[in-house]
Amino acid sequence: MSGFKLLPTPLESLVVFVCMLMSVGNLLSHQHGSGVNKVFVKEHDDAVLPCSLSTRENLGGMLFDWRKNGQKDGQKEVFLYDAGNHYNNGRQGQDKQFKGRVSHFQGQLMNGNASIKIQNAKMADSGIYSCDFPKLQPSQTFSIELVVELTLKDRSGEIPGTCPEPYIKTLNDTKDGLLLQCEVRGASLEPKIRWQDSAGNILPSEEKVSERGGLYYVTLKTAVTKTDHYRCVVTQEDIGHQIDAETFVPFYEKLCEDRSVGWLFGGIVIGAAVVAVVLALLVATKCITVTCDPGKLMLCIVSIYINTLFRYYRNIV
Ligand SMILES: *[C@@H]1O[C@H](CO)[C@@H](O)[C@H](O)[C@H]1NC(C)=O
Ligand SMILES: *[C@@H]1O[C@H](CO)[C@@H](O)[C@H](O)[C@H]1NC(C)=O
């Protein structure tokens, strides 16, 4: 008798209690379709929404109904299968959002698998779906959340509220470089703005945001010091919208720091260029007949002179 205990120890009661809680939890989650299952899919990819009966009973002759919960427009009919009769073989009633895009897995029905595939997932497909077996005893409903992950692209015209192309302005030459300003005028969703160079590096910049009448006005300034294509990129992640504007900033290397040396050098360049141009004109008007390669060489030298001259003048103007 010494091996028997009539009353459980506190630890044993705790274990029993936890086990009971867990089985109740299991039972509940079973009835509610094991919570909300989340499915993530990229925009334009196909989404498989899973729904299976644990009993694996053959669904061939049964009824199951997929609906999407909407906020405003209530529930939308996504897919209904009734003993072989469904939206892809003549049955009416499917919501137009899903027309021609939803199919079931015929070969899986005998395994109790009522999963569906939605082709070419769109933003609007995101949300909570229910998979319902209304004729089962007891009836069963499963919830599945579909999350369509947006790819960033220019969605102007596709959806309302997209930010228009930003404006780029070149401001002052400062000690830090040439100041570029990017401006967004009136975005209804707060945008994220960044300046980047042609290699995609994000540039340090200074942002100012103001809000007027529910619209966001943002300016972003950055100082640049190198010749490059600079892009101002505006992103509205919530709606997958991205738009940018680009500007090319040329920096001409300074030939001379000292202006007087500059002029002297300029004089030489001009003189040489004049000679070269005259030569070129003579060649062109055939006053001098060029019959061999040295002529081409001369033309080449002429163009180099003219080029240098142009660069020099652009630099000092
Ligand atoms: C149901 O069928 C789909 C499509 O073939 C499959 O991806 C899924 O894994 C199946 N589910 C179960 C529980 O077998
Ligand atoms: C340019 O710089 C000067 C002096 O640094 C300043 O007074 C002026 O407001 C600046 N202009 C712009 C457009 O930022």
TrEMBL record:
User: Which Gene Ontology terms describe the biological processes this protein takes part in?
Assistant: regulation of cytokine production; T cell receptor signaling pathway
Q: Does the keyword Kinase apply?
A: no
Name a GO molecular-function annotation. Answer: signaling receptor binding
Q: Where in the cell is it found?
A: Membrane
**Membrane-spanning residues where?**
261-284
Q: Recite the UniProt keywords alphabetically.
A: Immunoglobulin domain, Membrane, Signal, Transmembrane, Transmembrane helix
Q: Where is the signal peptide?
A: 1-29
The UniProt record lists the Ig-like domain at: 10-143, 166-249
Q: Where does the UniProt entry say this protein principally localizes?
A: membrane
Q: Does the keyword Transmembrane apply?
A: yes
Q: Which InterPro entries match?
A: BTN3A2-like_Ig-C (IPR053896), Ig-like_dom (IPR007110), Ig-like_dom_sf (IPR036179), Ig-like_fold (IPR013783), Ig_sub (IPR003599), Ig_V-set (IPR013106), IgSF_BTN/MOG (IPR050504)
Q: Which domain of life is it from?
A: Eukaryota
Q: Which PANTHER family match?
A: BUTYROPHILIN, ICOS LIGAND
Q: What is this protein called?
A: Ig-like domain-containing protein
Please give the organism. Sparus aurata
**What high-level taxonomic lineage is stated for the organism?**
Eukaryota, Metazoa, Chordata, Craniata, Vertebrata
Q: Which gene encodes it?
A: LOC115582888
